[in-house]
Amino acid sequence: MRALIAYLSYSGNTEETAEYILEKLSSHGVMVDMHRIGIDSPVNPSHYDVMFLGTFTWEDGRTPDEVKEFVLEIGYKPDNIAIFGTGDTQFGYFCGAVDKLTTFYRSRWQGLKIEQSPRGSQEHLIDHWLKGVLQHEANIA
């Protein structure tokens, strides 16, 4: 299986979550490419069995412009995108960008929402979510 983790991070929380996902996928034998949205060259979604798209959320639940540009860069709605994101419950709509992107892509998987950093007890949330994504992909292959 081949996967892409594309993410946008300002504070480092979404990047930390992406790196945790990378470690877990790699330990399951998945070949993984990382893509920093707004920094790295464009990607070709057809090269991947599953794509992980990570973002934070701006005030009032907005999706960052760089992530919107990444979506437009892809040019179509692949059906193999799993959405994850970080947020802070004290600032408006918690992980609203995750909800919006999950709906936009009609993702097979519920979006993963992490409160700030993925460290500690939230690692279990990531593990459980990834297990669902990997099981689904294994059943298709």
Protein described:
With 141 residues, the chain is an alpha/beta fold. It has a single domain, classed as Rossmann fold (3-Layer(aba) Sandwich), CATH 3.40.50.360. The protein has 4 helices and 5 strands. It has helices at residues 13-27, 65-74, 96-105, 122-140; strands at 2-7, 31-36, 50-56, 81-87, 112-115. Strands 2-1-3-4-5 form a 5-stranded parallel sheet, sandwiched between helices. Helix 1 links the parallel strand 1 and strand 2 (31-36). Helix 1 (13-27) crosses helix 4 (122-140). The longest helix is centred in the C-terminal third of the chain and has 19 residues, at 122-140. It is globular. The mean pLDDT is 91.
Which CATH first-tier class would you pick? Alpha Beta
Largest sheet: 5 strands, parallel
Q: Quick one: overall form?
A: globular
Structural class: alpha/beta
Mean pLDDT: 91
Please write out the topology.
Blueprint: E1 2-7, H1 13-27, E2 31-36, E3 50-56, H2 65-74, E4 81-87, H3 96-105, E5 112-115, H4 122-140
Parallel strand pairs: 1-2, 1-3, 3-4, 4-5
